[in-house]
Amino acid sequence: MSRIEPDRALRIVGALALALGLIAVPAVFPDFRVYQLSVALTYAIAILGLNLLMGFNGQISVAQGVFFAVGAYTSAILMTRYGVDYLATLPAAVMAAAVLGLAVGVPALRWQGLPLAFITFGLAVLVPPLALKLEPITKGATGISLVKPSAPEWFPGSQDTFLYVLCLAGCGLCVLVARRLLRGNTGRALRAVRDNGLIAESLGISPAAVRLAAFTISAGFAGFGGGLFAVVNGFVSPESFQMTKSFDFLVGSIVGGITSISGAFIGALFVVFLPDWSADLSLAAAGLVYGVVLVVMMLLARDGVIGRLDALVKWAARASSHRARSRQVSGEELDARSVGRQYSK
Amino acid sequence: MQLFFQQIIEGLSSGAIYAALALALVMIYRATRIVNFAQGEMGTFTVYLAWQLDQWGVPFAFSLIVAGALSFVLGILVFRLTIRPVLSASESTIVNICIGLFIGFEALSLWIWGADTHPFPRLFSDRIWTFWGVRLSASNVGTLATLCVLAAGLILMFRFTRIGLAMRASAAEREKSPLVGIEVETMLMLGWGLAAVFGFIAAVLVAPSLFLSPPMMVAVVIYALAAATLGGWDSPAGAIVGGLLIGVAESLGATYLRFIGSELKVGIPFALMAVVLLVRPQGLFGRTAVIRV
């Protein structure tokens, strides 16, 4: 398409505004908020992985928090026990989580659909007590403290700002990888398997292989986020990776919009700051909001905040161009996406 | 050897609870092809209601009956408000809704009744009989008897009543059943209501030993999922056998495998589930799904 359409232009402007806002953060907010935002960015990476899996490949995982935890522990253990440089631990965190994803995916993905939900649900319940039990490796309930990397001399800001910029760079990398995966043949294969496995298969795509690859990659994203989280947080313990962490990611993914990249960031901000604000009211408030939000979004807005924004922008663009074209016969294609049959009364 | 038999009895007794919840899951799955992850949390919520009534001085038996009836209504409401509108949507949409219900109900219990655990009255007397050194408590017997009554009730209903027949018909042929005058939607509502009652009963049976707390049923749901997977998702008999097997495996595993102990017991159903999915994904009693292209 040679011409830039109005909704596309608006989207580009939105993305630029978001990027500028993210860069301006350390100048405006105090260190603690900057730290919180860094944590939100690490969550956003895990949520982005979940979006690839859920939004673009149509699978569901309730265990994204588990892969996040595996990445965090991998980084923390490599840094404290083996003295590996923090940047060098991140690829290892990705690998560890991806290998676990592969191991879990094999039994879960041979048969499409619900088995993956069971297995990941079980994994989310199982892993917190497992982290406690593996005390020689994970140091049990005490957790692992590590020294946060300090800002290099050339860096003109505090340690927290430096870590924030590090997370921002990590996010940028992940967004690039995600965009690359969604473009071209890989993206088409992912979506084809999501939309109709049989047709995909008849086109020479192996749905099982694509699903397994998507699940592994998604776990790798979570592992990367987890590794960054360990570096930013300076402390890793089972307390940070309860079952609810996996639910946080799920909620974040759905709130932002599962088929969007920028939605991951909105979702991450939501799950980091909502519990923070609602804790004064009741510790249960965040959970209740999550539950209600999940159900209501599924009923009313399955494409999340970004999806609604998109629809709004498209609607505005159509309304403005409508008057200009009202006299012309437009050759628009018929949009028949939501036509279905229903038999029961 | 005594320890072995003792563990088998304990395993069967907790297995009966898993089987009750697995029956609820299978019932819903057969009717609507949905796995209700929130069944356990809904059960916890309704048991809290029973506990609250008991605290207010309502006789215990009566408060159980009232809470049981309320759970039936709750099951219907949940179906009407959250599931019915998306019945034909994709699998992941519905899983997300069920997870939302799971989080929501747990948070609701936490909000209303707090995080403290409460003792819940025993349903059965604390008599214990001893045979050849193996102790058999009234609660073991009572739990297994409850499962038998539930199973018998289901069989009688599905085999010999009009409503049971209509429910089976609407589960098997959702599109054709209206043609012979079956109110499919009513049947689905009934199914969800009944399943909620089963979840309530499972939670009542669990509560005395685990104590009442908002996350009480989280692990039990995993056991029930494993039980239904092991037995086969379209087979109620499979759910019962699967539940009992999982209970025994858990009890023996926690006793004899040192690494597992009591903290990692939940690993046993998880591992069994993974093995079943690898080796025999339709479960012991399930039929292989045939998809017509």
List the helices and strands and how they pair.
The complex is a heterodimer of chains A (345) and B (293).
Chain A lengths: L5 H23 L2 H24 L9 H19 L3 H24 L4 H20 L1 H4 L5 E2 L13 H24 L1 H12 L1 H6 L4 H27 L1 E2 L6 H14 L5 H17 L6 H16 L3 H22 L20
Antiparallel strand pairs in A: 1-2
Chain B lengths: L1 H31 L6 H17 L4 H24 L7 H23 L14 E4 L2 E4 H23 L1 H11 L11 H27 L7 H14 L4 H21 L10 H13 L14
Antiparallel strand pairs in B: 1-2
Q: Would you write up a description of this structure?
A:
The complex is a heterodimer of chains A (345) and B (293). Chain A is built from 14 helices and 2 strands, in the order ααααααβααααβαααα. By secondary structure, chain A is mostly helical. Chain A has a two-stranded antiparallel sheet with strand order 1-2. In chain A, helix 2 packs parallel to helix 7 and helix 11 crosses helix 12. The radius of gyration of chain A is 21 Å and the shape is globular. The model of chain A has no long low-confidence stretch (mean pLDDT 83). In chain B, 70% of the residues lie in helices and 3% in strands. The mean pLDDT of chain B is 87. The longest helix of chain B has 31 residues, at 2-32. Chain B has helices at 2-32, 39-55, 60-83, 91-113, 138-160, 162-172, 184-210, 218-231, 236-256, 267-279, and strands at 128-131, 134-137. The chains are: A mainly alpha (345), B mainly alpha (293). Chains A and B meet through helix 4, helix 5, helix 11 and helix 13 of A and helix 4, helix 8 and helix 10 of B.
